[in-house]
Hints:
3 domains
Amino acid sequence: MSYWFETNLAVLSQSQPAEAEALAKLKPKVTATGLSYAFNGGEVILAGTDQEVPTLALDLGDGPKRLTSARDPYREDALLAEEFLKAKGGLNGVTAIGFGLGYGLAILLAKLPAEAPVWLWEGRPELAAAALTARDLRPVLSDKRFRLVLTNPNPIDLPPGAPKATLARPANLRLDAALYPASLKKARPLKNPKILFLDAGYYLSRELRNAAQELKSPLQTFAFDPKMVGDREIKAFLTQIKEFRPDLVLTVNHLGLDADGTLVDLFARLSLPLASWFVDSPIYILTEKAKGDVFVFAWDRDYVEPLKDLGFAKATYLPLATDPTFFKPDQSPILRPAAFVGDSLTAATLKYLNLAGLSPSRLPQIDALAQDFLKVPDLTPKRLAETFAAQEGLDPEKTTALWALITWRGSRLSRAAVLKAVAGPGFVVRGDPGWRELAPCLNLQGPLNYYQDLAAFYRTTAVNLNVTSAQMKTGLNQRVFDVPAAGGFLLTDEREQLKDLFAEDEYASYPDPAEAKRLLNQWLKRPRDRAILVNKARARILGEHLYVHRLERIRRHIFGA
Length: 561
């Protein structure tokens, strides 16, 4: 049985000689299964090395209790570190609490910025000695960003200079809590936070109410007209806060918040966390730098960095989901071979044409810009629109409307290209009359109500087609979750973020309009394979991609796991 203690200690002594000297004084006892380090009142037990998975246990006089997984300690610490980094986002350093076997440290150092420090706080030097004995930790110990903090058996708080973001190993805090920083024990996670929802009657209102009810989190709504926030509205809002005593304010797309930041400032003064979940492009919604300390969530991962550039340091990825209250399967027969449900975006493009102060005669030029936008990875057509905006003399507000107009025209063009490619006698489009102008060849049958009609339509269609909006370059829209949840089969355009949320045998995708036609016909001939894929996709969605999961993620991100 071989050990790494002397090798690791030699590396540690180069950067932290005092800590290396303290650890060198600890003398282990050889046991039948490994080593043990005695201390006043108990012992640290290290078992297994070489071909065995090393495990770490702590005995405080009432029998040994594991500090690491006996089956896969690497995965345990890897998931802890990766979930922490996803939840926090934008960190410039981390203080890790509890050594474990050091797997999480390597992940933190690999995924944090190049200069971000990683401090390791260990309340028992014996645990650090055991970790240095069990594994080759030289890559961690030699990293100039790493610092080991050893404490004596007296609880103190984090030392001066330690990164404020703390990642604690739950087993260490649970089994030996007295040795770790008092600040960690003060912040108790809220299991059922009271939520005040700024309801603007927009998308997700019903879904978030249902999710809160399932999580047993009391939820109340308050409706603001952001253009009419005065003393009377603020007084009514304060009264509701006083009576309800919420733990969190939640909004979608920043709706219900005034542009001047009055409400955001109010929440900050009340130490009331504000969470804003963007399910549309924030670039066309937010025109100024962030005001206040806001937890921002983006439905498309590509918008996280742009949101941070806008001043939202806590921006993080939170994809869409579905609500099985509205989307669930039944035994309905297939009534049509293939269909697309969606808007032609005629009304949206006319809206932004007016907001940009442009004449319809400019649409051919704008469509040319939109075609270019579809080919580039940029999230906004800002660079493409610069010359056109200057020629038209557009002010900043109208220029932003122009960006949105180009995006929506791009979506309109991409939808039309796919639908024209797949159009045929059995293909149905359910949408607005704008389709008659855009693609007269389509079999148009009128729009459907999202909550009342859509689930039944999805599950009675053999192949439902999806064409994602141009405002998402790699993200996922609502159909990806709703269609399989309702028991329907979806053929979607290829999206990078599909691989984040689904296994390869849980979705079907096409790369371009021509392939959409070929694959649609192919899937129509394979009803058994469609059913298998739908069952797999639905199982994944029910297990991981419901709105109750997303609201729980918001709770964990803000209040802790």
